[in-house]
Design brief:
mainly beta; 2 domains; six-stranded antiparallel beta sheet; Immunoglobulin-like; five-stranded antiparallel beta sheet; Methylamine Dehydrogenase, Chain H
Length: about 475
């Protein structure tokens, strides 16, 4: 069936730019469950031929949100303060040639960008406050500072508590981790590094977990790729780092990336090669870190598809997993202590198939206060997707209590037909983001539709016998 979706996708992929609710399992051409498409920008519209990683920044001055998307030839900046009408502000070109992977993190209103190409790319440092006033987008940006003590890096991690950046798999320290003091972002300082590992990716935290031996220490978790293991290191003293433990896991293939639960008790690991090499469904490995000196493999979670998993991040009791061909998968980890995880939603950015392989969702960024989620994607349908959880429950109303509305599609005025004679207390109009845009109290039989750029609105009818919600198509 997904082959049919692929044909439909090819017909409309270049025209999808804004809000499409997830209804009956589809948001336009994209299979979905519980997540609406806010906007889509293909990488071709950003002057690139592929995309890769992503991150985000919220301006502390006005809480405006910006997406930052890695491209094969640079870094794109997108204003998403109006999430259904995002503005591509421009691109910061790469320092050297094109690259499959680029990584971005933020700290103190600056973006830090590395690339894994073979040239001397270093780390670009960009002042994000420059995005506040872009006169005629899109523009070409240049970095404010280029840190060049290393040539290239596959990934980048930042501990915002300490103000250090960690470049992974550079030409320094035998492919380990290079430390950079970025407390003064425009004057980065080489702070050494750690070798003896071949780091593919890393997470660094100020530890506040159950092992009291390390409370308050700066802990690095190194995911060592094709070395197939994970190393935990105390890096509090940058000149005297201490390995705490090193471990692998069942049928390890490529220890790609991992993320701690917020209480630092459990580590969720993604292996990028196991589905492709071993032929099972998307596998996620969970370790119990009650004792950092002795991590214990707790259990394995298998997803509903055979897609290859890539980057994954924890927010509260949810794990947001970029699962390549199967898109973004959202997994409830509330019961992780009882060896249970449950998929509760998804947005599939690659309708062609859900098999193992390397097209589709590269990464997700779920940390905006608005609830908007960035999905950056690669391959023939790649680019920038912005999605959001459908909290209105479009399909959750079992009874309409005898109400009908017309005309629908509607342009300016909507009539409410009340066949059962039930008294209406309030009429409310919401947009797809769940924002109240109009309210009328009293027993009304019509409501005026205000101007909106949305394609859809939702009419909530409050009565003494319950609430009914109707989906409205806005006629332009």
């Amino acid at each position: 069936m997904k082959h049919l979706y692929a044909i439909l996708f090819l017909c409309i992929s270049l025209s999808i730019t804004a809000q499409t609710p997830c209804e009956n399992g589809m948001a336009g051409a994209y299979p979905c469950d519980g997540y609406d498409l806010q906007a889509y920008i293909p990488f071709t519209a950003m002057g690139a031929t592929n995309a890769n990683d992503s991150w985000g920044w919220t301006d502390p001055l006005d809480d405006k949100e910006y997406a930052i998307v890695g491209l094969n030839n640079g870094t794109a900046f997108i204003d998403i303060s109006d999430p259904v009408n995002p503005v591509y502000l421009g691109r910061m070109p790469t320092v050297t040639g094109t690259a499959t992977a680029r990584d971005i993190k933020t700290f103190n209103n600056f973006a830090f960008v590395v690339s894994d190409n073979n040239g001397a790319h270093g780390m670009q440092i960009f002042d994000l406050t420059r995005l506040r006033n872009v006169a005629s987008p899109p523009v070409t940006f240049t970095e404010d500072v280029l840190y060049s003590d290393f040539e290239n890096a596959h990934n980048l991690a930042i501990n915002e508590d300490t103000g250090y950046a960690y470049a992974c798999r550079t030409n320094l320290f035998g492919g380990g981790v290079h430390f950079i003091d970025i407390n003064d972002p425009l004057n980065p300082v080489n702070a050494g590094g750690v070798g003896g590992i071949f780091t593919h990716d890393a997470q660094i935290v100020t530890y506040n977990g159950p092992d009291s031996d390390y409370t308050g220490r700066e802990i690095l978790l190194s995911f060592n790729g094709f070395d197939q293991d994970v190393t935990i290191i105390d890096i509090t003293d940058k000149s005297n780092t201490q390995v705490i433990s090193n471990f692998d896991y069942t049928t390890s293939q490529h220890a790609h990336q991992g993320w701690l639960t917020e209480d630092h008790r459990y580590l969720i690991i993604g292996d990028e090669s196991d589905e492709l090499n071993l032929g099972f469904n998307t596998r996620t490995i969970i370790f119990d870190l009650l004792d950092l000196d002795n991590p214990v493999e707790s259990f394995e979670y298998f997803g509903p598809t055979s897609a290859t998993d890539h980057n994954g991040y924890v927010l509260g009791n949810k794990y947001y997993q970029a699962s390549y061909n199967a898109g973004m998968r959202v997994i409830d980890i509330t019961d992780i202590g009882n060896q249970s995880m449950t998929e509760i939603g998804y947005f599939d950015v690659y309708p062609a198939n859900d098999s193992s392989g390397f097209s589709g969702a590269w990464s997700v960024y779920p940390y905006f206060n608005s609830g908007n989620i960035v999905i950056s994607t690669l391959g023939s349908q790649g680019g920038f997707f912005l999605v959001k959880e459908n909290t209105l429950g479009v399909d959750s109303f079992a009874s309409d209590l005898g109400f009908s509305v017309y005309p629908n599609p509607v342009s300016d005025r909507l009539n409410i037909q009340n066949d059962a004679g039930i008294e209406i207390t309030t009429l409310r109009l919401y947009d797809v983001m769940g924002r109240l845009i109009q309210e009328q109290k009293g027993n009304r039989s019509e409501i005026t539709i205000p101007y909106t750029s949305s394609r859809f609105l939702f009419l909530q009818i409050d009565t003494e016998q319950g609430t009914v919600t109707k989906k409205l198509v806005i006629e332009k």
